[in-house]
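Hey, can you fold this?
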Amino acid sequence: MNIHEYCPEKVLPLQKAVQKIQNGNRVFVGTGCGEPQALIKAMVEEQTLQDIVIYQMLSSTLANYVHEKAFSRRFSLKLFFISQAMRQAAFEGKIDYIPAYLSQIPGLFLSKRIGLDVALIQVSPPDRFGFCSLGISVDITLAGMQSAKTVIAQINPTMPKTSGDSLVHVDDFDYLVEHDESLVEFLPSSKNQEIVERIAYHVNKLVDDGATLQIGFGHLPNAILPYLHDKKDLGIHTQVITDGFLPLFKKKVINNKKKNYLPNRVVASLCMGSCDLYRYLDNNPMFYFRSSQFVNDPNVIAKNDNLISISSALEVDLTGQICTDSKGHLFYSGIGDQVDFIRGSSMSNQGFSIIVLPSTAQNGEVSRIVPHLSPGAGVATTRGDVDIVVTEYGVAELHGKGIYQRVVELAQIAHPKFRAEIIEQAKKHRYIFTDQLPPSKQDLMFLEKYNSHLELEDGKHFFFRPLLPADEFESRNFFYSLQETTVYYRFFNKRKVFSREMLQEQWANVDYRKNMTIIGLTQVGKHKEIAAIGSYAQVDTDTAEVAFVVKETYQGLGIGSYLLKILDKIAKENKYKRFTATVLSENQTMIHVFKKHYPQAKLARSGGGEVEIMMELE
């Protein structure tokens, strides 16, 4: 369509267009990389404009003016999210931050709770039917445009054309400005690559093939994406598309084939990235852009089975409260999409959420896992919503767990130098028992090599890994679930009580070299339960005593033998030459397992009906 023929009265030069804004107007500006830069510059440079209130979500161009003295006299900035370019201005009190869930911001406009006089947006040129595209910024831009009394659109040939809610007709615009310019690019700054890789390693283990992902705002979630390259058939339902997705699109890792809701489509609301990403999106039918009111609606999100939400945080307290938008009293970012997707993922069939963050800040001087949030810090995600927290030191599963367990889980993934202090503070808060032992100060990343999977003949999967402090409660449940005979065979007495002190001592005595305990877990619903435990403990420099116990349901399926193989391998790595075991003579099943694995084992009967078994580690 030729707009000069179809609606010549609407086409204006930049200066004439911004003169349609009146003093005292409330002006909405399009979001992030889709913002109309030329219109923004022209508005600011129009000296006759006074007392203008500007509403925007992610702001970039205005950062060039916000520190000028004249700007604050003429303009008032109200932002729903503080971009990196605007943080200093926010710290200096030059911005009015509006905390709001992204899913609800469009409703604030449409209901007139926030009235808008003018909307400045950017669109692609109209097609032959007169339809333009909002391109990479549908999010809250669509509602802002629909709610404003006057809409001024910058037509930019560089804006990609996207499908979904992005199509708007030139009849819906009051004024049009033709201006060709490069779009704003969002190129994430580099992070500590070792920390990124370690966090990504843990996240990778949590993401199964065929899952549908949401990746939240922030450099860290985006940086994790390339480390999912080994996955298959991933789907996307997310607020923002960034460059981190691009290699996964091109390698068909993300193909959306397994999505049960809106299959074969990437559902998104916003795009922030490079020109390469914008070109990939242009006229690409795989992408389906909808407003934030739809994309971020928890009820819509929940329609996706296996929806995994991955977002970041500034700090996490020991009860599971998450702060994302402020550093103490200083507003830093925004609530954004986190709460919407965390709640949506919790309602999704087999869905869950992951919060990722480095364990420290300020060059390692400050822990991000804290006894309590910093004074003034806002709680974006409540302790009742949080599911999984990941740092470079591991995974803390918090959902459905009490404060005591949460403290142990989070202390375990804190930086080693802060763990003892965290436990001491938790004791002062009465979160845990006064005799609680702190987790090891070791960096336990080396234990990952001891993780393994075993598929049984019936198709059931077992996951094996070293025992951790956070397993105390689950190991309690395991021992109490055992039948009396199994307990007797393991402990040589009819033990009735497995005290907290005993279980705490069990993991506290594991140094993962001289002493080792491996647990076998099986999936039950959304969580894993301990079904087997195997250990060795030092007798002398060459010898370790070995023992294991398997839940009755899984006995006779090779679990014991598999545990013995794992312990054998680890013991030899740690320079042991032999295993010894004490077994009741009537426990022929256990004796058989040892003799099968060590045909040259030497058996000797001792008093009390016990058999001493000596096994050389070849």
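Oh, and this one too while you're at it.
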Amino acid sequence: MEWQSLYKNKVVSAQEAVSKIKRGNRVFIGTGCGEPQHLIKAMVTDQNLQDIMLYQMLSYTLSQFVDNESFSKRFSLKLFFISRSMRKAAFEGKIDYIPAYLSRIASLFSSQRIGLDAALVQVSPPDPFGYCSLGVSVDITRAGLEHARMVIAQVNPRMPRTWGDSFVHVDEIDYLVPYDEPLVQFFPTVQDNEVSRRIGHYISQLVDDGATLQVGFGNLPYHILKFLDGKKDLGLHTQVITDGFLPLFEKKVITNKKKSLLPDRIVTSFCMGSQKLYHFVDNNPAFYFRSSDFVNDPLVIARNDNLITISAALEVDLTGQVCTDSLGDRFYSGIGDQVDFLRGSAMSKGGFSIIALPSTAHNGRVSRIVPSLSEGAGVATTRGDVNFVITEYGIAELSGKSIYQRVMELAQIAHPKFREELIEVARKRHYIFKDQLPPTTDDLIFIEGYKSSYTLKSGKTVEFRPLLPSDEFAYRNFFYSLQEKTIYFRFFYKMRNFTHEVVQKQWASLDYRQNISIIGLAQKGGHKEIIAIGSYAKEDDNRAEIAFVVREDYQGKGLGSFLLELLEAIARQNGFSAFTATVLRENASMLKVFKKRYTNAKMTFSSGNEVQVHMDFADARTGASPV
């Protein structure tokens, strides 16, 4: 065939190919695990190359040379993302970092804002029609070679052939350098630990079956994937594929059947992992590799219904600003894909974003939830873009929340030893009420066991969990949604105002063991509202006083009985053996709920309008416990 003779005429050695690069040229290098190692080494060792400007996203091979004085004199290194092997060099000022959204890098090349004289890429051998594949690195590599004046390709038989927009005909390549070598492999540097396990647990609570996921780059996102192995029919539209996905592929957790955009296909841009991963994507039609200007385009992302993006961060301040690319004034990683996917998920029908990070750094000495971002730190993600933030201490929901609410949500998931300090700073800045109580300094992981759910006959699910300080506004809205009669039955007088001071008194007594309140949450539009609340408070060593209320439109649906059983199960765990309650005589429905659960409940009628009810847990009807 004609292309085959053309191919032979383009085959040269690496040394001859890089000799075509001229003094002062601007050279693009392929990304990460797809970078052409052999060509890079030939370029660096060619002493005739002087004053060369190198552009790359994820760089690994060059880390072997960046500390060499001769290299720094001849090459200027410009990176869109600082890989872990390049961080030391970045801290020492040996790298020029270009902050850019991944979705827009291609336009920097096409507009000639960043002009390219040459591109060094790695491809698979050509197929019978003369098409090579960019394999594991399509991302910005596609745009780099399309807009460079000269293209030099290392032809490596170990490069997988990937489906999608990865194909490059030999006509588009100026020089071909056949060279067989293992691809760069990537593995997490931090092993799975208790922090990542707890964060994974919280993330799994937010991911529903059938969701389409984007998972960011880094150690933490890699480890949390295993906590999604109980889900069904997940889809993927994500920038990078790592080995962390392999168990989900093998267990058929990721099927892509429910995707609204390109169903049955995994949409991605590049791979970073082991040889096992590269073998898995090789000629696998389930994968659809596209360039970053497609995969990361927020408008494209938004076409995926129920798109959930999960990414990491270095710091989050009390207002919700996020830093991802620098430690103070030291550049650490890059803006990458976070903002693209946060904005795309916000426009997705049913979509939302999750930012996950450990609560501390430096062996627990420094909080990652901070009053203000570190001096010099960049705001990669604005406070207006953030939805959920998760640490090993829980979930903070920020979307649509005021600064007061954000402070309480984020302080609640900070490490316990930093919570009081965060609240104190927030008070001084007038972010919160002067009398605001800080969240408890206890580790509340145990209250995860208190969570439960109840499915109504309509199919709607009501979720139950402990009331938290960050629920103050939702609790207030619940109170004012109740009818006057319901309030009277609960509080025994016509309570008119449910003020901040009233709520603060309740927070002061909550310890989630001897005194606890459980709320029921039902979905309404894009958020959840409180529709029921139940509480118990220690009366003596064996007994606790109980009270609860269900909003009128949810009464008569079994929620009161379920809430009673749930509170009983929690009280049993904490050493109680009986409940007492004070009920108004005319509150027949409440008395019925108690009598139904405790057939031998003792009722004492006072001379007034109140009934004292004593309920021994030993008399409770047997059945499945809700916790």
